[in-house]
Amino acid sequence: MKVKQILRSGLLFLTPIALLLLGWEVVATLEIINPALVSRPSEIFPLLYELIMPKTRSFLGHSIFLDIYTSLYRLLYAFIIAVVSGVTLGMLMGRNKLVYRFFDPLITVLMPIPGIAWAPIFMLWLGFGDPTIITVGALAAFFPIVYNTAAGVRSVEKKLVWSARSMGADEKTIFLKVFLPWSAAYIFTGIKLALARGWRTIIAVEMIAASLFGLGFIIFDARDYLRPSIIYAGIIVLVVIYFLIENMIKLIEKRTIEKWGMVRS
Amino acid sequence: MTITRSQIIKPFYFVLPFLIVIGLWELAVDMGTVSSRLVPSPSLITLKFYRLMTPEPILLNVLYMSFYRLILGYALGVLIGVSLGILMGVSNLLYRVFSPILSLLISVPTLAWVPLLLVTLGPGEETVIIAIFLGSFFPIVYNTLNGIRSVSKHRVWAAHIMGADKATVFFEVLLPGSLVSIITGLRLAIGYSWRALVGAEMLAAGISAGVGQMIYAAKAFNDVEAMFAGLIIIAIGGLLLDRLLMDPIERKTVEKWGMVKER
Amino acid sequence: MKKVKVQAIDLNKTFGGGNDKVVAISDFNLEVKENEFTVLVGPSGCGKSTFLYMVAGFEKPTGGKILLDGKPITKPGPDRGFVFQEFVLYPWRTVLSNVTFGLEIAGVSKEVAKETAMRLIEMVGLNGFENAYPHTLSGGMKQRVGIARALAYDPEVLLMDEPFGSLDAQTRKVMQGELTRIWEKMKKTVIFVTHSVIEATYLADKIIVMTARPGRVKGVIDVDLPRPRDYTGKQYLRIRGKVLGLLEEEVMKSLGKTPRKP
């Protein structure tokens, strides 16, 4: 019966989209809207195929997989940097009131700054390409992690610590066995936000700071060709990747946080 | 009214880290530890701010243009977003038809739409405004429709048994009940809109002045002071929007009704 | 001879279909007399709340019918009042405007509505709190508002779904006394659902014991004691024992019947 359920929900999800694509095709073919704005899906999908296959004569001169790969590894590096620095600082802030008092105002003011706003300055310092993109991406991902980690560690109930102490635990054990698991849920929330924020920032920064590869770059670059199909194709790729990343996170969430009954949204 | 001790201490503690950072920063640049060509000292940045306001109020113009775009785009987002959100929240049919499409579109980074806008609307004001609209639209629709759909069934029942008709249930139960979510959506939307504004201004080559545009243009001239000044403006702008706009609204409604924890 | 106010005839309620079918109530026949305080007790899951929802019009019967003053019930309406276990007050309305809500809907003028509401607020003992917001009130106080709200538009029948279930033991006892006091003033027809035999024996004119799922009427016990009742009185304890006896059998059945999900 579970297969039937999955099929059913899949159908429920896909039917409106299929209808949308159909409507889109009709509108585009009938040229109700300026063809410079709207490409037909029947054009976009073969183009996607072209873009994927490396040797075909696509506008890019290379397979779109290279761009996907590039954007993703930038995300990965940025993410790792952000997680390591963010969790560390977040934990310090959570445990030490002075550290918290010092950094919290700074974070409050710096966090709302959009990632791309940092880009021009870093471009000046680090030039075009990976260094800038990864750094700015890391910066954008850093803040949600540090914020949520600090909040998580600070929220550990005194009584949990007391009960561990009365069982004879030393500071190190308390940290590992009480603070860490408790804040895990918060850290996870921070990581989810960081991934989303980092991804958006990297795509955006690629538009101004990349020179050859990257999904953001090719989407932006495609505007010169006046063929919106490439742009649409790029957007579709973005959606698919986001969908995959999101589901991967959901899976991890199911195996860890949800199992422990500590879901936070 | 006498000023209590805590009223002085709290803002002081907030500002202190900044003073420390600025102090060290100034020292580092003045001592030559950091090249002032790459990182301008706070004093130079302050000078830049001064120069941006006299003899010509360039800064004012920059802020005006950006806020003008922001307000237009955000207002559009609120109008269309709340309307659509309500429709989708109330009608099960509309929800089932449109929510898959919504969840696809919502996953596209706002700035990824900009190249499309550039191709269709050109590199001018419209692109920036529509980009801002797109930034604010999605969180608003999403939160509005979820807010309405999550109003407890019992609350609706209680109104039904008192004789309420559909319109009454909507205005007296669904709408106030979803206010918390709607406000959350408005809050998120302001942040996203600000981000869309800055990014779109950098990508749209045909606009005259703006906070994002300022930083980007400054880079072309290697004007680091202006770049940092722009960054500071962006930071303060984003912060003020959230605090000055959203907090009072929250306080007067959902906080007063105890639907949200008071801060 | 009291008139029959609410009548359930061959009532049947089934949820879901196919393999997931749940028969909540079947062959349910019941008569509730006017101005009587009728209490339904039964084991968990026996369908007593489901029955109440059907009288309220929130759910529709799958078979059979329910009559109010001889007319079938099809949907919710102001001829009935409902008090929920979780209070279900509107947090954005003050106590006063929660109570006047039903009157507002009925189109009653503001002054008359306020007057009526204030009378009820005083009757439930919340004088002085009319401008408070629900989130500032305690559980017991919230439920008083719930009761006042349900009575404000003078319904024919008052339906109460485990109204004191969310309250602590002490408040619960106080509220039982309060409800008796309030009811004595208005003598409304009440259908009250609970799983507490103590509560049922304290409040009811008539106790209806339901079987385990699928629920039907197992027994009817009249409680002909004067109010307010004494929790330790001999008569009270005797009746309580009788009800408990009937109920325990069904509770055992429902526990033994509970399937373990794989």
Just name the CATH architecture of the largest domain in chain C: 3-Layer(aba) Sandwich
Distance between the termini of chain C: 53 Å
Overall number of domains of chain C? 2
Number of helices of chain A: 10
- The CATH homologous superfamily of the largest domain in chain A is termed MetI-like
Portion of residues within helices of chain C: 25-40%
Label the structural class of chain C.
Answer: alpha/beta
The biggest beta sheet of chain A is recorded as: none
Using the CA coordinates, give the radius of gyration of chain A.
23 Å
Name the overall outline of chain A: globular
What is the CATH T-level topology of the largest domain in chain A? MetI-like fold
Low-confidence stretches of chain A: none
Strand portion of chain A, in percent? Answer: under 5%
CATH topology term of the largest domain in chain C: Rossmann fold
Number of β-strand runs of chain C: 10
Oligomer status:
heterotrimer
Query: What do the pLDDT scores of chain C average to?
Result: 90
Descriptive terms for the model:
heterotrimer; A: 265 residues; mainly alpha; MetI-like fold; 2 domains; 10 helices; 79% helix; 0% strand; globular; B: 263 residues
Task: Write a brief structural summary.
Chain A is mostly helical and 265 residues long.
Spell out the blueprint of helices and strands.
The complex is a heterotrimer of chains A (265), B (263) and C (262).
Chain A: H1 2-29, H2 41-52, H3 64-95, H4 97-110, H5 115-126, H6 130-154, H7 158-166, H8 171-209, H9 215-221, H10 228-258
Chain B: H1 5-30, H2 42-53, H3 58-90, H4 92-105, H5 114-121, H6 125-149, H7 153-161, H8 166-203, H9 211-220, H10 224-255
Chain C: E1 4-15, E2 22-33, E3 37-41, H1 48-56, E4 63-68, E5 71-72, E6 80-83, H2 95-106, H3 110-123, H4 139-152, E7 157-161, H5 169-186, E8 189-194, H6 197-203, E9 206-210, E10 217-222, H7 234-257
